[in-house]
């Protein structure tokens, strides 16, 4: 099934991208030197589409095992992190790390605390105090930045 | 001669030496941890080097490259799990030797072979890179364009995917490189109104995503895989007879590895496979291979480590990465505003030679780390994955954010991680994507410049000897394997291996 589904998905993506590329501004011919801005991406998209068709024809079918629960859980936690990072990136990192460790089988309080609290805090302090890189302001980081 | 010594003097700064020693240890830990490799390690550390001066920054990345490539052998021998894909062939003979109670002998041979291979390749790098760069003075935009096309065509043979899928992945990387302002016309493309995308998609978040975050998802699939460890009482050095038996293998594999490394986009993994196969082919006892042949370890390790120096030749001399990790290092050079190519050996000569010396130094450091610290470093493989990967994720996210302090980069890293995972799942290697992203901008710029230079008569590119040579090499790289397969099918002597 994936033998056709993946290349078809790529072709659809390329068609959408190709349509988007037709909306790019064009340089008037009198000022143009070399290529129009859309020419190069369109060449690449056509190449990808042509190769995807070849993959459909020549690729050997492979039996894929279904994705495991752990992968789905990890993907779900990415979404949770992305949402929480809108509130506070530091909070998002702590919750993600703790939840991932738990989901992957960590049951020791010390282990979960290490990844959920200690490591994000140390990394935050390293970036803030050594590299002088400020995290985005948020619920928890405001307490530090004032 | 003067820049050579000046580079050495820069490197002899005690602070820098301490930093490089720490980077060597860090590289060994990264290489020893299954799932992390030199490319992932360099990608994760790239954001940390941005605030540094160019010499320590790039020296750290190259040190991580060499050290992690070497350290893959530690886990390959002790737990039958190659720390890096370049050490996969080391498992074949290293683990059986360890099971026979000769782990020390195997590790000792891996260390010595890696060191010799690494040193030989760095010497080749010191000699070949400036010569190759001088040759590049004759290059005009059409030659550079043809060379970049050749570099991209080599993507077909790397990674885990089929050639077709690798080229699709590489082309996708080139497409990503078109996001942002067109260099020649400044027209915005695929920016969807995000001002942050005007300057294009950054290398760092994409690399962190496809190498680091996607690996987290791959590790999620393998949570239930058990690993067995062979305990080692002490490191026992290989005997004089062992060295007498393998010195030719080490030299041969070092030559093979350096040559493979110089080819654009080929890397340590291909080198180790060819080095191992050649060791078996030339061996007086090929039947021992796979059962604990010391020559197998020497052949594989000398080749994979010598590929690191070789890979830096086209990276520094022509701006075409010689391996996936060299692609990350090339991204580091670009972030620091350094332009690889002929000018690097005239205007930035001290920088270039300092990097060479750093690579030489790390190869010498292996001896001590490999022989005295292997037992200790082997323990890092037992950090539970449920502790290791959440920490790697935290580093990845903060690293992606750090470069431009932009949350958009964090989301790009996450999206790249998910895309990278599905690419790997469906047989599309992520390495061509990374190299395509780096070379894409260069390719378009050089095509545009060539068209301007040739007055839109693109076919004139084929009338220039050097660009024609690169186009012919491109066709050979793409279709050569198919012609060879056809030839083998037709010739019964070749197909039966007689």
From TrEMBL, chain A:
<feature type="domain" description="DUF1468">
    <location>
        <begin position="9"/>
        <end position="136"/>
    </location>
</feature>
<keyword id="KW-1133">Transmembrane helix</keyword>
<keyword id="KW-0472">Membrane</keyword>
<feature type="transmembrane region" description="Helical">
    <location>
        <begin position="70"/>
        <end position="103"/>
    </location>
</feature>
<dbReference type="Pfam" id="PF07331">
    <property type="entry name" value="TctB"/>
</dbReference>
<feature type="transmembrane region" description="Helical">
    <location>
        <begin position="109"/>
        <end position="127"/>
    </location>
</feature>
<feature type="transmembrane region" description="Helical">
    <location>
        <begin position="40"/>
        <end position="58"/>
    </location>
</feature>
<keyword id="KW-0812">Transmembrane</keyword>
<protein>
    <submittedName>
        <fullName>Tripartite tricarboxylate transporter TctB family protein</fullName>
    </submittedName>
</protein>
<dbReference type="InterPro" id="IPR009936">
    <property type="entry name" value="DUF1468"/>
</dbReference>
Automatic annotation (TrEMBL), chain B:
<feature type="transmembrane region" description="Helical">
    <location>
        <begin position="380"/>
        <end position="403"/>
    </location>
</feature>
<feature type="transmembrane region" description="Helical">
    <location>
        <begin position="144"/>
        <end position="177"/>
    </location>
</feature>
<feature type="transmembrane region" description="Helical">
    <location>
        <begin position="58"/>
        <end position="79"/>
    </location>
</feature>
<feature type="transmembrane region" description="Helical">
    <location>
        <begin position="316"/>
        <end position="338"/>
    </location>
</feature>
<keyword id="KW-0812">Transmembrane</keyword>
<protein>
    <submittedName>
        <fullName>Tripartite tricarboxylate transporter permease</fullName>
    </submittedName>
</protein>
<keyword id="KW-0472">Membrane</keyword>
<dbReference type="Pfam" id="PF01970">
    <property type="entry name" value="TctA"/>
</dbReference>
<feature type="transmembrane region" description="Helical">
    <location>
        <begin position="426"/>
        <end position="444"/>
    </location>
</feature>
<feature type="transmembrane region" description="Helical">
    <location>
        <begin position="350"/>
        <end position="373"/>
    </location>
</feature>
<feature type="transmembrane region" description="Helical">
    <location>
        <begin position="465"/>
        <end position="484"/>
    </location>
</feature>
<keyword id="KW-1133">Transmembrane helix</keyword>
<dbReference type="InterPro" id="IPR002823">
    <property type="entry name" value="DUF112_TM"/>
</dbReference>
<feature type="transmembrane region" description="Helical">
    <location>
        <begin position="197"/>
        <end position="218"/>
    </location>
</feature>
<feature type="domain" description="DUF112">
    <location>
        <begin position="17"/>
        <end position="433"/>
    </location>
</feature>
<feature type="transmembrane region" description="Helical">
    <location>
        <begin position="106"/>
        <end position="132"/>
    </location>
</feature>
């Amino acid at each position: 099934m994936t033998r056709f589904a993946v290349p078809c998905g790529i072709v659809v993506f390329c068609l959408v991208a190709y349509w988007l590329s037709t909306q790019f501004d064009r340089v008037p011919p009198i000022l143009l030197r070399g290529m129009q801005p859309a020419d190069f991406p369109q060449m690449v998209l056509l190449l990808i589409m042509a190769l995807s068709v070849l993959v459909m024809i020549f690729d050997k079918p492979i039996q894929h095992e279904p994705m495991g629960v752990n992968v789905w859980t990890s993907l779900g936690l990415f979404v949770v992190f992305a949402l929480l990072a809108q509130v506070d990136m530091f909070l998002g990192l702590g919750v993600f790390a703790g939840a991932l460790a738990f989901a992957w089988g960590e049951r020791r309080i010390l282990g979960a605390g290490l990844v959920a609290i200690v490591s994000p805090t140390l990394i935050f302090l390293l970036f803030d105090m050594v590299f002088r890189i400020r995290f985005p302001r948020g619920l928890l980081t405001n307490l530090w930045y004032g | 001669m003067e820049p050579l010594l000046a580079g050495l003097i820069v490197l002899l700064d005690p602070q820098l030496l301490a930093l490089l020693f720490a980077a060597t240890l860090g590289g060994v830990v990264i290489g020893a941890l299954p799932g992390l490799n030199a490319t992932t390690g360099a990608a994760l550390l790239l954001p940390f080097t941005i605030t540094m001066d160019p010499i320590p920054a790039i020296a750290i990345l190259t040190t991580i490259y060499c050290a992690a490539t070497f350290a893959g052998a530690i886990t390959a021998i002790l737990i039958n799990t190659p720390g890096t894909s370049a050490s996969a062939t080391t498992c074949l003979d290293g683990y059986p030797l360890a099971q026979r109670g000769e782990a020390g002998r195997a590790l000792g041979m891996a260390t010595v072979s890696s060191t010799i291979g690494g040193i030989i390749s760095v010497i080749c790098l010191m000699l070949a890179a400036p010569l190759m760069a001088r040759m590049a003075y004759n290059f005009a935009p059409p030659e550079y364009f043809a060379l970049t096309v050749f570099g991209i065509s080599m993507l077909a043979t790397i990674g885990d995917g089929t050639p077709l899928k690798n080229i699709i992945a590489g082309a996708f990387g080139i497409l990503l490189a078109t996001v942002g302002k067109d260099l020649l016309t400044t027209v915005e493309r695929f920016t969807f109104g995000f001002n942050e995308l005007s300057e294009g998609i950054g290398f760092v978040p994409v690399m962190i995503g496809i190498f680091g975050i996607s690996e987290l998802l791959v590790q999620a699939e393998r949570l239930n895989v058990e690993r067995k460890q062979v305990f080692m009482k002490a490191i026992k050095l290989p005997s004089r007879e062992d060295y007498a038996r393998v010195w030719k293998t080490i030299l041969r594999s070092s030559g093979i590895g350096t040559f493979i490394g110089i080819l654009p986009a080929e890397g340590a993994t291909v080198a180790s496979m060819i080095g191992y196969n050649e060791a078996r082919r030339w061996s007086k006892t090929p039947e021992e291979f796979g059962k604990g042949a010391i020559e197998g370890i020497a052949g594989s390790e000398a080749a994979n480590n010598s590929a690191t120096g070789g890979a830096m030749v086209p990276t520094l001399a022509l701006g075409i990465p010689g391996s996936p990790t060299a692609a990350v290092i090339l991204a580091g050079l670009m972030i620091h505003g350094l332009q690889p190519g002929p000018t690097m050996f005239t205007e930035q000569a001290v920088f270039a030679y300092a990097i060479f010396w750093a690579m030489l130094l790390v190869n010498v450091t292996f001896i001590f780390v490999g022989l005295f610290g292997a037992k200790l470093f082997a323990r890092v493989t037992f950090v539970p994955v449920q502790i290791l990967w959440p920490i790697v994720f935290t580093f990845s996210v903060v690293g992606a954010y750090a470069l431009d302090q932009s949350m958009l980069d964090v989301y790009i890293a996450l999206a790249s991680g998910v895309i990278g995972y599905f690419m790997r799942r469906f047989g599309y290697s992520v390495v061509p994507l990374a190299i395509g992203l780096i070379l894409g901008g260069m390719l378009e710029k050089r095509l545009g410049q060539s068209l301007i230079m040739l007055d839109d008569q693109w076919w004139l590119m084929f009338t220039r000897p050097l660009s024609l040579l690169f186009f012919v090499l491109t066709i050979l790289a793409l279709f050569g394997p198919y012609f060879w397969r056809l030839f083998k099918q037709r010739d019964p002597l070749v197909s039966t291996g007689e």
